[in-house]
Predict the 3D structure of the following.
Amino acid sequence: MNGSKMMKGLMLHCGANAVDEVAVRDAVTPVATSSHVPVPHGMVIDLVGNMLEHSGWAITQKEYGLFGKDGAQMFGVWGIRNGVFGHPDYQLALGIRNSHDKKFPISVGVGTTVFVCDNLCFSGLISLAAKHTKNVIRDLPQKTFDLFGKLEAANLLQDKRIAAYKEKEVGTTEVHDFLVRSVDEKVIPNSYVPQILKEFRTPTHEEFLYDSTGVNKGVRSAWTLMNAYTERFKSTNALDLPGRTVRLHGMLDQLTFGAVQGLDAIEEVDAVVVETTPQIIDAGPGLPPVMVG
């Protein structure tokens, strides 16, 4: 991956109150009760960062948004990679959410950001959701580490998925049917249809017309359609992106493969197995350590 190709304003695109990490860490965490244990945003950030590092992944970019009273709701997007090289069109991304006001659990999801436009789409291949219950701090580190153990398989599948999207030509009848079904599936409201159809017909960026070899053949594909949706999602609430885009990916999989893709679509020969020795790793301040290997 070219290190200069990085996210340039995802939070601003999505209408969020874009802030730096210091502001996220400074958000006040309410006092815990017997039934609700708020976890500081900074603790979640430390945990995800430490587990990611121990899984062999590097963070290329961080963006954050705060929502609600006193920054009670946090949404972060990190660009990540596991080597020097990556795909020229997009990079893998992590979406991180936490709330202090019971709006949603701590959650981590995997997606992609498209370099040319900062479009963000969550894959739904692997995800974590942890409620703010009395055992959340005890259980969260291990759950997070286990999640990242599947990250390479998710990365491989996402590459195959997007390559197939780029080769799947989509005609007028198909796109009209897709738009109607996406309203039924709660991917979009009715009001989004005209803008998405316009973007599909006349893409903002030439890269939306590229096939899997990087050639613009002037053909609209499932890749074109995905980016038509995510272009429109730039002006929606960032907190709604995970749900909308996971459902979108499911529909695109049905269109392209005839079925939703899961990690079982990756063959064992595709995976890189690394032998490790048992060790205890630090999950972050205030969190229990994790035994790995």
Summary: Strands lie at 17-19, 58-67, 73-81, 90-99, 106-114, 119-130, 279-281, 290-292.
